[in-house]
Each structure stands twice: as structure tokens, then as C-alpha cells.
Design a protein that fits this description.
It contains 6 helices and no strands. The protein is mainly α. The chain has a single domain, classed as Tetratricopeptide repeat domain (Serine Threonine Protein Phosphatase 5, Tetratricopeptide repeat). It is flat.
């Protein structure tokens, strides 16, 4: 569907995300629910990420920013969400925002994990700097 009809795929992904109502049995503290809850959270994250990628490809940077923001609420160190955010800023003609986003994630990764951003993020940083 995505490769043949990307606009239609975008609508299908948006519809599927609208069905999500939050963590599975959120108020249930029982251990048996944790694997199922995590399974559905990961599915939701994957759907959100794929839709953000598709929106970027189709030229919808505002929507990409919104979706990447949701991913970052779920996992602040999600490097692909940071890359999507940077790419969306570049697409909007705001490369300086992309550079700021890179600096935020660079500091976060260094403080939290003692690591550097991925090669993809560095490439996106270079793309942003070329657009300034």
C-alpha cells in the first residue's frame, strides 16, 4: 500500500492511530498484563514512526513534527524521531531549528548514555547547515 499509493497509505495509518486509546489496561498493576501492554505500545510507536516518515515523504512537515513530538514524549532519546523533527524543520525552511534540535539530542544522549548521535543525525545536521 505505501509504495503503490502513499497518500492512501497515509490515511490508513492516520485512521489506525486514531483507534489507539492509550496503554493497554493502564490501571491494572498485575504483572501478567505488562507484556501485552508493551506489545501494543511498541505497535503504536511503530505506526506513529511510519506515518511520520510517510508524511515527510509526501511534503507534510507540520504533521511530521506533530508525530515526531509524540514519539519523543514516549521516548526522549528516540533518535529517528529527532531526525524526523530535523528533516521537517529543514522542509519548512527552518534549518536553524534543525541545528538546535540536534544540539538538544546530542546533549541528551551524552548525559543519559554517554554516547554520540547516530550517523543519520549527523548527516541531517550537515544538511541543515548547508541550508543556512
Amino acid at each position: 500500500l505505501e509504495t503503490g499509493q502513499p497518500a492512501a497509505a497515509r490515511e490508513v495509518w492516520k485512521d489506525s492511530l486514531r483507534l489507539y486509546r492509550g496503554p493497554y489496561l493502564e490501571d491494572c498493576p498485575m504483572e501478567w498484563v505488562w507484556p501485552a501492554r508493551r506489545h501494543y505500545e511498541l505497535k503504536h510507536e511503530t505506526f506513529t514512526e511510519r506515518l511520520a516518515e510517510l508524511c515527510l515523504e509526501l511534503g507534510h512537515p507540520r504533521e511530521t513534527l506533530e508525530l515526531a513530538g509524540r514519539l519523543l514524549e514516549f521516548e526522549a532519546s528516540h533518535q529517528n524521531a529527532h531526525r524526523l523533527t530535523m528533516e521537517a524543520y529543514i522542509a519548512e525552511g527552518r534549518p536553524e531549528e534543525a541545528v538546535r534540535q540536534y544540539e538538544r539530542v546530542r546533549i541528551l544522549l551524552l548525559n543519559e548514555f554517554g554516547s554520540e548521535p547516530s550517523i543519520e543525525l549527523v548527516r541531517t545536521l550537515q544538511k541543515a547547515k548547508l541550508g543556512m
